[in-house]
Amino acid sequence: MTRRYVVRRLLQLGPTAAAILLVGFLLIHLAPGDPVLALAGENGDAEYYAFVREKFGLDEPLPTQLATYAGNVLRGDLGTSYVLGRPVSDVIAERLPATLLLTGTALVFSTVAGVAIGVFSATRRRRWPDVTVTLATLAMYSAPVFLLGQLAILLLALRAGWFPVQGMTDARSSATGLSHVLDVGHHLVLPALALAAQEVAAVSRLSRVGLLDELRRDHIRTARAKGVPERTVVLSHALRRALLPVVTVLGGRTGQLVAGAVVVEVVFGWPGIGRLLVTAMQARDAPVVLGVFLLVAVTVVVANLLTDLLYAWLDPRVRYR
Amino acid sequence: MSATAELAGAQPAATPVGRRPRLLVRSLRTPGGAVGAGLSLLLVAAGLLAPLLAPTDPFAVDGPPLTAPSGAYPFGTDALGRDLLSGVIYGARTSLIVAASVAAMVIVIGTTVGLWAGYFGGWVDDALMRITELFQVLPRFFMALVVIAFFGPGLDRLVLLLGVTSWPLLARVIRVEVLALRHREFVEAARVHGASRTRILLREILPNALPPGIALLGLVVAQVILIEASLGFLGLGDPNVTSWGTLASEAQRFLRVAWWLSLFPGLAILLAVLGLNLLGDAVTDALTGRR
Amino acid sequence: MAARRLVALAGAAALLLTACAGSDNEGNETRPDARSSGAPAKGGTLSVALDSDPGALNPAITTSGGTHTASELVFSGLVELTPKLEQVPELAESWEVLENGALYRFNLRNGVTWHDGKPFTSADVKHTFDTMLLKLHSRTAASVGAALSSITTPDPDTVEFRFKQPYAPLLQQLDVTEAPILPKHLYEGTDVAKNPANNKPVGTGPFKLVSYTPGSELRFTANREYFKKDLPYLDEVVMRVIPDKGNQVVALEAGEVDWLFGTPGPDLPRLKSSGKYDFITTPLNPGGSNCIMTVSFNLDRPLFQDVRLRRALGTALDRDQFVDRVLFGQGRVAEAPISSGIPFAHASGLKGMPEFDRAEAERLLDEAGWKRQGGGTRTSAGVAGVPDGTPLAFGFTHFPTFSAYAQLLRAQLTSVGADVMLQPLEPPVFADTVFKARNFDTNIISYCNGVDPEIGVKRMYVTSNIGPVPFSNSSAYRNPEVDKLFEDARTTVDPKARTQIYRTLQEKLVQDLPYLWIVETEANRVFPNTCKGFTPSGHFAEAASCTT
Amino acid sequence: MRAAGATPLLSVRDLVVEFHARSGVVRAVDGIDLDVHPGETLGVVGESGSGKTVSMLAAVGLLPAAPYCTVRGQVLLNGRDLLTLSTRDLRALRGREIGMIFQDPMTSLHPSFRVVDQVAEALLVHDSALADRQARTRALELLERVGVARPDRRVRDYPHQWSGGMRQRAMIAIAIANDPPLLIADEPTTALDVTIQAQILDVLRRARDELGAAAVLITHDLGVVAELADRVSVLQSGRVVESATVEEVFAAPRHPHTITLLDALPRLDRPLAERRPVAEAPPVLEVEDVAVHYANPGGGVVRAVDGVSLSLLPGETLGLVGESGCGKSTLARTIVRLVDPQAGRVRFGGRDITRARGRALRGVRRALAMVFQDPYASLNPRMTVGEIVAAPLRIAGCYRSSGGRRRVAELLDMVRLDPASADRLPSDFSGGQRQRVGIARALALSPRVLVLDEPVSSLDVSIQAQVVGLLDQLQRELGLTYLFISHDLSLVRQISDRVAVMYLGKIVELGTREQVYERPTHPYTQSLLAAVPSPHPERRSSRTLLVGEVADPTDPPSGCRFRTRCAKAAPECAEEVPALVVREGSDHPSACHFASTAPPGSPAGTSGSTPDAG
Q1: C401, C511: one domain
Q2: ipTM surpasses cut 0.90
Q3: C519 to each of C283, C320, C424, C443, how far by Cα in Å?
Q4: Is there a smaller number of Cβ atoms within 10 Å at the N or the C end of chain C?
């Protein structure tokens, strides 16, 4: 793929990121309420507030704060959490793996399962399996995440007892090595499913429609005229381009997933960024919220970039635009 | 171009060649479209007529607490003894308000941006698309979360935020359509006869570019309703209006003891969103001649 | 294998233990029956649910409930408070109250060592008070700090607290919650707020912190050098962060956790009837003890300056409904301004507390000049300071967690023709809006009275405490008599006299009604009945043991 | 050679194809019988919708499966009924025993696979023993065979980097990959320019002969049939109306439909209908040295029109012919001011309108109208026909004054459309009718000049004839002046007074139609004329083929732009740009150093092509 194309897309990152930074910062600092109270908690006394205020440089005018902030961010310093009194980057770093694991799994799963389902129903177009699947996915697509999560807990965890209901590891066993991995995996299943559900639906619907469109194209007729086995026609010739719409939304979907993770992590007590965000917001721990905001936004931007590159790889014509 | 319509598909739908008239009628003829329209209509009706339909004020505590669905209380009552049926009906009203006002904003912003970017192209297009991308990159739900958490709950700001962040999809789709239409011969014909830019945009291009956008709108609005619900679930709903999400979130504490509290609001959300999705799909299908 | 050795010891230890276990269960309202007698099993891991991530683990520099519940197992106070609030020795072996309450001398326990092996001395006590408790622990700082003149350490085993005037409540404020003691050798000469020890606490308590995974879990292991003989029985305590109360119950029933600090009302009956669990009902909440849900009126606003309106609204509130439908029986209607949890100060059988009577409420409102137009909201007619025709509409500010109270209150007041707008605000914003900006009409606050009115009651009423400090005098109630009475109460050491002062005080308060005292809340600790030996808070798992 | 063997290779019996639409059952093929004997080529002719393509797709099972459509009857290939074969067997037989070539080379190849691999795949699917490398080598050979120059240099190419002609060659390579006994070609050249068409037909013919394969040639173009077929079956609305040897059909057509088709077919050999002499008058429209360049998205500058001068006399029809990409449409757009030229000027009625704005421009707009090529794309699908026709009036602000609906009705009537249809949408009309609407719109402001850009190329021949007839009549009634642009030489010849031939942005020859058609002097014109398939099966082309394809317009050859394909090309052609002047021995201007009526001698290579990067 042409270097020019990659470079151009890379250059577009800068402004976007900057804008995001600004939006987030203003959003949070112009909001009512005083972060200092997050530190003092109840019943702090006046001079103690002053002490904190000065300690966290909250007296500085906003522009100055933004400038310092931007500078720090570029140096990878996201500031210090009011509440935890520790570097935001550390706090986030601690929570990141859990969320990455959760959203990553959900992303991969939803893509694979979604496409599989899409192919399944597209190749049975308008016969009962297709109809059922289409309706089911549409329902899944329409159901709020928290509902799915709670249902999963009630039915699969409590009733059936197949899965743990809370957290990322079993409280009593401080297992290590393989058993630890298995333990985490076991805990991962339900949250990942709940989070993936909507995306599975979206992807399957998208790939179904894409495949149906693709199967109508002339070059598919050519392939069949060559005598290419139907299997290959569908899975190689048709699917390759049918996936383009799926690919184009990958980036957007990561955004959706991260957002969905907030709810899912709360429902399943998953110790990730989402819950960090919720608690931080309640404590008005601005640096943390802003840090998470940046992280998420940048992730999505990068995801979109990768998406486009992947797209260009799948559709050679793009590179020459 | 990067992420395009989540469900509208990537390629332009506007191939108005030989399209038969009365698009809506045709989309409604399909079972999906019919059901979708039915549900959406139900939502609108419930929303508009809430005061007439609801047995009581949704906030009034005038029943026994936690009574299961019965003749007197078809959807049961909550812990405080409030009638859930009334709650769900008034919830529809809230969802409707949010959906409608966001839709309005989305149409205005999305169409304008899409038209301009698509028609004028060049740096206008680039600039607008950068902005669009930016807005598209900001995860809406996440933004809503932060805004509400910081500025306090309230439909006004929620609508404002969702309106301001939900238009990119529409803008992109419209833009793609316009790009496809801009050099259509019927547009050039108009130019040959000296039609003004405004006439070309509004009379020749817009009518052809809009339908796919509208179809998409159904899906966008559906998402908006989901977001509103999820915010309510996280306890960020406006306590002075009844919202399905808020009902659902209050219900969580009673999941084990009062299933109906979670079931009916959840069902309401699901059906409303389902309806809008079905409708949107039906229209899209009718447009692209799918099925 | 460690576990096996302990099991071997178990038999030998058994005898001595019963006593301790028994005494520790004293406070349980619902006494674990036969199961709790007999030798406590040794070893095992106890899994505990936390509402939120503690963030930091230094209980001496904050009153945040999260930090305290998560860290108190690690530390100790000079004095331990039993559930009945009697003071028993902890780090202090014994003490004398001298000069009629102006000087307290404590003899410290010998041979106590920190978890890192360093010896514990009086220097640690003084350092903790001077650099942390009196500066950053807002409750202790505000009460003890105000009254204290100096702390001296004649020798490593002795600490003396000297006050400007006699100070009655000190002994109630030296437990691990109000005055945890931290190691001088780790904090001396460092920036307290940034000290790494805040996340790797070193204490003298029954358990040592092993690991802290923010947002997820904390793991503690038994402190085998603990100065209380043979305690703790457990090998391990694990605390899981489970924000949603409903999910905590789910986890409990799934057997993933063994201890909840509170039981959601809706689930209480089910759990009780299941027969699988035991409960400890206690007035202790994370925020403090003996809390009363209290409605404040912003007395700076003309609307609420007429006591008749305040009384009318009070009369319109059916407080039993709050107990039934919001607390699900975990609490009682407040009989007096001071909690019944402080027996010596609580005024029972007080006259003039507003009692629910809708008709009466309507009458009072009419009388106060708030007339009903048709069925809707009342409007003013000849109300002092309020232009005629003003609708009886006002905002009600509250924590999101208190929305159930808010909604019930709204419903009840609406039915007498008042229009209430709810304004849920996250705690920091709430504090900001209510106490600094004073931009509210009415609000609801869980005022925790603590174990002595000096700690949690006074702050609500004294004129000097109006202003920016959170959870101070929210109504902005100004009454010189009341200020005077509180002053007397503080300096009076004779219990009887104090009780009398507080009674007079409360009589004044119910006349003026600067607040509406709605309900006294209590929490139900819940645990599987295979476990026993818990106390409601502090070192709650110190003497706990489980048989599996 | 064409000895009709006793047992046909392919024999279709009573084939019925029905489509099940919501509106009801549509019978696309209504019981047709066809026979193709070994080594024989059957031409299946019919207009769009006659079922010619459907029947063949049905025969090889390439139609969507039930419930969308049902196929009944018998399709015997070497005695095996394809309709009863299992999908697996049918699949195994496709490509190995039947090779297929489809109409649109632009869409028939998979855009994401390399061309070579797509050819190789045709081999691999039928020979599991074959290794990928061998397959690729064979694929390259095949491409070579179908006239792709140096395929080894294009191993990495994707279809979008190839021209239509080359893609069609690739399709043929795929079709013949397994030496199938039967080839089915569905409109193989319809999407191509006449010179490329000639090349492809040639390739096809040679491929067929080398394989000794039988072939079914589906086309609407009798010329193509005459070139290639031995026997012809004429289809009309799903039925075979006439079946005979190609000679019989052209010499003595029996069925009326066949006769209509033959009459409607514009042909170079038909005696020219006399045209009224054009009154001497100053030109109404003049184009002087107009040049239009625009940036190519792929990089470089496209010199679409590069110094063209023309003039239209009142009442005449100037035909402008050339292959796609020669710049004729751009020129038309420039004249009607859709495009602004970089150089030169356009005069209308003596006034320079090149930069006209405001009122001046509006004046021009009234007197200068355009009719577009695609009757589907040129009408706004969301406006009623009435609105469409009224649009120019409204824009000019004279809807009321001109009589409103009455004027609209009048216009519709003028183009032989029922005025009552004013309230219906374009989608209710057929292609021919739509084109009439387009013409009515163009006439709305009663202009003096009509620019007609390929106005009938997308229509069936019978419809073409009608529309052309209408245009002729309107010209006489209204005294219109036409600039008639088309790639179809026969058509242009039929209706033009004068003809201009365009190549790569330049006019290469200009003269009266007699001069251009009977005494062409530019090699390009000569080859164009030669390339037109002649409906004379008896004298099959001993004609010379034009080499290669139109050069890259972003980088045209130096000197004479045609030299890269010219048989007469000489060194000086690369040096000096030939001017468009009357040279001795000729009576009309022509831009060739060696302009002469002598047809160019047979060129060096019979085929081979210059790439034009996509």
Answers
A1: yes
A2: no
A3: 12, 9, 20, 15
A4: N
- The domain that holds A152 is classified in CATH as 1.10.3720.10
Expressed as residue numbers, the domain containing A181 is: 93-251+258-270
Q: Is B196 on the interface with C (CB under 8 A)?
A: no
CATH class of the domain comprising B3-287: mainly alpha
pTM beyond 0.80? no
Interface contact B52, partner D, CB < 8 A: no
On whether residue A154 sits in a domain, the answer given is: yes
A283 inside domain: no
User: Which of C149, C175, C196 is the endpoint of a domain?
Assistant: C196
The answer to whether the Cβ–Cβ distance between A229 and D126 falls below 8 Å is no
CB of D392 less than 8 A from some CB of B: yes
Indicate whether C358 and C467 sit together in one domain. yes
Which of B30, B125, B186, B208 to mutate: most D Cβ within 10 Å?
A: B186
Please tell me the total number of residues recorded for chain D in this structure.
Answer: 614
Tens-of-pLDDT digits for all 321 residues of chain A?
466 777 877 777 777 777 777 777 776 666 655 555 544 444 445 555 666 566 556 667 777 777 776 777 777 777 777 666 677 888 888 888 889 999 999 999 998 999 999 888 888 876 778 888 888 888 888 888 888 888 888 888 777 778 877 777 766 666 667 777 777 878 888 899 889 988 898 888 888 888 888 888 888 888 888 888 888 888 888 888 888 878 777 777 787 888 888 888 888 888 888 888 887 777 667 778 778 888 888 888 788 788 777 777 776 665 544
Instruction: State whether A227 and D160 contact (CB < 8 Å).
Output: no
Domain-embedded: residue A161: yes
CA distance A96 to chain B (A): 16
Number of domains in chain C: 2
Does any CB of chain A come closer than 8 Å to the CB of residue D348?
no
Number of domains in chain A: 1
| Domain end among C179, C196, C213 | C196
Contact residues on chain B for A250, CB-CB shorter than 8 A: 3
| Side-chain half-sphere CA neighbours of D510 within 13 A | 16
Whether A308 has its CB under 8 Å from any CB of chain B: the answer is: yes
Contact D160 A316 (CB under 8 A): yes
How far is Cα A250 from Cα D141, in angstroms, rounded to an integer?
Answer: 41
For D437-471, b/e burial (b = at least 16 CB within 10 A) is: bbbbbbbbbebbbbbbbbbbebbbbebbbbbbebb
C232, part of any domain:
no
Query: Chain C contacts of A159, Cβ < 8 Å?
Result: none
Q: Which residues of A touch C251 (CB under 8 A)?
A: 165-167, 269
Range of the domain at C428: 288-521
Q: Which amino acid is at A86?
A: R
Phi, psi of B234 (to 5 degrees): -80, 10
D380–B188 C-beta distance less than 8 A = no
Interface test with B, best of A16, A128, A133, A142 (most B CBs within 10 A): A142
Other C-beta atoms closer than 10 Å to the C-beta of C255 total: 15
Mutate to test the interface with C, among A37, A168, A170 (most CBs of C within 10 A): A37
The two three-digit tokens of residue D328, written as one number: 């004729």
For C:54-93, CB contacts with A below 8 A are: 55-56, 62-64
C530 touching A (Cβ < 8 Å):
no
Instruction: Give the whole-angstrom CA distance, residue A199 versus residue A118.
Output: 12
CATH code, domain carrying C170: 3.90.76.10
Q: How far is A289 from chain B (nearest CA, A)?
A: 8
Q: Residue C244: closest CA among chain B residues belongs to which residue?
A: B253
